[in-house]
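Worked Example 4.2. Consider the chain below.
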Amino acid sequence: MRVEAVNFASFIGDTFDLSTVRGAGLLLLNAPDALSSELHLTKVYAGASSAIYRFQADGEDQAARICRDAEGLLHADGRSAATILVVSEAFDDADFSGVMNRLQNKIRWRQLQSPSLIYPTLNSAEIDELDDLRPAVKRASRLNPPEIEGGKGTPMVLSDATFQRRSYGIDQKRCFYASRAWAGAPWASDFPFHTGEYVNDFNQLADCPGKGRTNGKIALIYLDGNKFGQIASSCRSPDEVSNWANTVQANQNSFLHWLLSLRIADSPRSGMTSWHWSGRVQTNSGYGQIKNHAFRIETLLWGGDEIIWIVPAWCGWWVLTNFFDLYGTIPWKEPGVEREFTTDRKYRLSHGASIVFSHSNAPIHRLIRLAKHLAEEPKRLGTHGLRTENYQDYFTYQVLESFDHLGDDPEKIRALRMPYILRTAGADSLTLSGDGMKGVLAGMEKVRSKFPRSKLHRLLDLYCNHPDSAPNEQAEKELKNAGTTDVFTELSDYFGATAPDEALKNAAAWMHIAELWDYTPEPDWKACEIGKGVSA
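Applying the procedure from the previous section yields the following structure tokens:
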């Protein structure tokens, strides 16, 4: 039996409300929990939006009935507006791959036959204020912000579907992170797992006046596993595909646990870093309360081969750096933490990724679409022409300052912002390697401390608009005067790794230094150093 959620746009992407988006994603992630033990299903694996089970049935009719019963359970309560399909196929040990392919084909055929609209039964003249579509009623247990200081706010007008998703997103947020706790972690005594609050929205997540130009900004990190679907389809038995799913989940869980175990360098128990936020918030019952040391993170997509995190803008580069560096190496309470996986061949587990830096009030679905588009080239570069055991991590980033999207042709706009000599040479300097990211933090700090930002912009203007004015000679002079020649060489080796000559390498380096000036601060927190006293 294959269970798969499809048609996400009408369930996850129909509102911009963070709690509703979160709740919809968690409802699909936790959908297998809704299956009753009375169906006597044996789980082979369960991922972000799909699962495989084995069961006994006396013929096609009974198998179809079990699938209908499972589908009914999966669509109960908060998942009533979701599209979750269930199909079955007679199992054959000798043709496991064929069975998996036939199940996949059945799902796709049923998806094509599925209606695009689910008609709600709620009889109301009011319209859902979050999706602006479904009939809705006032919900006294879910309140809008108070209209006057000290007021309790007004009831939200929500449909059943939105109310259930939003309630689930609010109630389960802490549960999602708490389920990644591990009391037996080797670093637990020095780096305790965060067991407190989490921020409610992007405004809290990005609110930090001490961060200067990055105050009020977020980093959306999108990660997509390289050929993870191919790895799964190359598994030749239920045990092998189950091991694959466990490996992916263990690697993801171990990193998230490690990320939620941060502390200030000189005070292991204080727990307050620039990852944390404190302030006054309004509860869903309309009353104000103080939230202390709330962790600044949102997980909008989790499991399977994709992850979407929202973190403060000043943390984004650091998070992706450590994900690439530590994925597959952090100990976990369950087996399966490893960088490689072997089926009929050996695969190095790697990712294509993107980071979008933007204001906290930018439309979230637009940012997600942009991030997914940007990750396509890193995924191609990380696998094209490489042996499967040599797959690599690549990523790209985009800084959105005074606008929140790049139009219908993002690559054209991105290319126009490159220095002139990079555009004319056709050099691909926008995609960077995951290997070497860590050195950027220290290198950028040295440049910021010694090199005037005003001169940086003048040099970049020469590269972009006056290529005949010998910008390399001017740049060398300014670097020597500032005492930053050596660190610039290190940065240009990373940022200009794909450039065919020195001039293009330097142009790429100045472009990235200017773009990332505010977004690569060194951390004011500490995390456990894997490999130094703690090993996998």
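The radius of gyration is 25 Å. The domain at 180-418 is CATH 3.30.70.270 (Alpha-Beta Plaits). Compare this with Example 4.1 before moving on.
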